[in-house]
Amino acid sequence: MKVGIPKGLLYYKYKPFFTTFFEELGAEIIESPDTNKEILDLGVKLCTDEACLPIKVFHGHVEKIKDKCDLILVPRIMQVEKREFICPKFCGIPEMIENNIKDLPLITKAPIYSYSADKFINWAYETGKLFTKSYVKIQKAFEDALKEQNNFKEGIDHEGFQYKIALIGHTYNIYDNFINMNLVKKLNGFGIGVITHEVVDDSVKHMEIKKLFKRPFWTFAREYYGFASYAVKNKLIDGIIYLSSFACGIDSVIVELLKLEFEDVPFLLLKIDEHTGEAGFDTRVEAFVDMLTRRKRGNLA
Questions:
Q1: C-alpha torsion sign, points 129, 131, 134, 140
Q2: CB 2 within 8 A of CB 68
Q3: What are the Cα distances from residue 165, in Å, to 80, 126, 157, 258?
């Protein structure tokens, strides 16, 4: 069986797990190409206008590989932490794909609760039975996949730069260089290093959110706020750039939290959608870098 893996949404975070799981069951992996204009245009055409840019891009990736495989991974991720949830669009993404794209092969639909192996393995059994009737083989594939995922080193933590910023945002925005217009490379070109939330241990982020009046409902909110709080408190950064998809409800909450809590820290909000022009994007980044360097020099004077 040929399994298609679209390079969208949380592909950048969970690729080691899914790739290993399907390969252990004897599947041939067909990955979509890196995001490009053709894939973006396909997604915009197929998806509802109200959806955010990453959801549209995911549609384009599915459309690009649908005729090359027997099964497409469409992860219905529900929870990755107890008492927390992620973007509600993940809960309904299989139905969105089914209703927006014609002539699909099989797609995965089982829900994923990855905060415990006992919960997560239900997805493995539901999906693995498409390949084999052996629960032993499925369990081994699942365990091997977890090992690969646990050995995967995530995140960016640049050394050797005079200035350093926290780059905050969903992984599908930060690591998709077409969507973010090579933001990390541009920052490095200006002499700015980058650190992302993955390099800070989850236990630290859990400690940082205890200062909030109420525990965040969204996993992304807990991760990003906890990371920013730790980075500011320990003087790891000189500023914050938040890369957000236009109309993202979760981002709107997190951004306000960060602005209120860290009002003395240089902060740039970059919103992206299918209409974002690179010239205006670059101008805002350049202005922020200029402000950051002037501020730092002033403090050192």
A1: negative
A2: yes
A3: 27, 42, 10, 14
Report DSSP state, residue 295: H
Q: Find where tokens 């390969």 sit.
A: 23
Residue 7 CB: number of other CB atoms within 10 A?
21
pLDDT band at 301 (very low <50, low <70, confident <90, very high): very low
Q: In 10 A of CB 109, how many CB atoms?
A: 16
CATH of domain 163-300: 3.40.50.11900
Domain residue limits, the chain: 2-150, 163-300
Between helices 117-128 and 135-150, what is the axis angle to 10°? 130
By the 8 A CB rule, do 105 and 69 touch?
yes
Sign, CA torsion 183/281/42/8: positive
What angle, rounded to 10 degrees, do the helices at 37-46 and 53-65 form? 100
* Predicted confidence (pLDDT) at residue 219 exceeds the cutoff of 70: yes
182 Cα distance to chain centroid = 16
Give strand pairing partners of 157: 195
Q: Is the dihedral of CA 293, 251, 227, 193 positive or negative?
A: negative
Residues 130-157: tens digit of each pLDDT:
999 999 999 999 999 999 999 998 899 9
Of 136, 144, 138, 113, give the one whose Cα is nearest residue 124: 138
